């Protein structure tokens, strides 16, 4: 089975064949650990998030993605804007042949507790990681810079 591939600052990345992909992601932080998703479509870990639907705001999009992927319900006050990632070298190649430039609006939500998690069909596993643990796992290339920026 072909897997999703992620590229960042890679001269060998394929050229996009579809319009830009606009999405959201979120750093969900609890007890100084960040929630990551072991993706089903590849063997990488990544932040919670996904594509923005045509009829939703970025805030509504990230709340929907968090609920779908983790079963965590966040309210507007818990979610803070973090940063926009729009480098043209952020490329995602999907197994169906679609290749997109990924533009991502990132957010942060800090929780006072470790919530009960429920994986979606898109995930192998959900787990909170410390910074040291994150340094020892395979992170999707389009999410590596987001994590680096958070830890600066």
Describe the structure.
This protein has 152 residues and is an alpha+beta fold. It has one domain: Nucleoside Triphosphate Pyrophosphohydrolase (Alpha-Beta Complex), CATH 3.90.79. Helix content is 18%, strand content 37%. The model has no long low-confidence stretch (mean pLDDT 95).
What percent of residues adopt helix (DSSP H or I)?
10-25%
Radius of gyration over C-alpha positions, nearest whole angstrom: 15 Å
Number of strands: 9
Q: What is the total domain count?
A: 1
Taking the sheet with the most strands, its summary is:
9 strands, mixed
Q: Would you tell me which CATH topology applies?
A: Nucleoside Triphosphate Pyrophosphohydrolase
In round numbers, the mean pLDDT is 95
Poorly predicted tracts of residues: none
The name of the CATH architecture is Alpha-Beta Complex
Helix count?
A: 3
What's the CATH H-level homologous superfamily? Answer: Nucleoside Triphosphate Pyrophosphohydrolase
Structure in a nutshell:
The chain has 152 residues and is of the alpha+beta class.
Key structural traits:
single chain, 18% helix, globular, 152 residues, Nucleoside Triphosphate Pyrophosphohydrolase, alpha+beta
């Amino acid at each position: 089975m072909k897997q999703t591939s992620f590229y960042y600052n890679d001269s060998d990345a394929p050229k996009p064949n579809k319009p830009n992909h606009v999405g959201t992601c979120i750093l969900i932080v609890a007890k100084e650990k960040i929630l990551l998703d072991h993706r089903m479509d590849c063997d990488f870990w990544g932040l919670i998030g996904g594509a923005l639907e045509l009829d939703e705001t970025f805030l509504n999009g990230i709340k929907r993605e968090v609920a779908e992927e983790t079963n965590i319900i966040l309210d507007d006050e818990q979610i803070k804007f973090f940063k926009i990632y729009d480098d043209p070298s952020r490329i995602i190649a999907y197994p169906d042949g679609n290749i997109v430039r990924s533009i991502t609006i990132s957010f942060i939500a800090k929780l006072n507790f470790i919530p009960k998690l429920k994986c979606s069909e898109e995930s192998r596993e959900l787990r909170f990681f410390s910074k040291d643990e994150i340094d020892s796992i395979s992170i999707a290339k389009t999410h590596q810079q987001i994590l680096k920026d958070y830890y600066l």
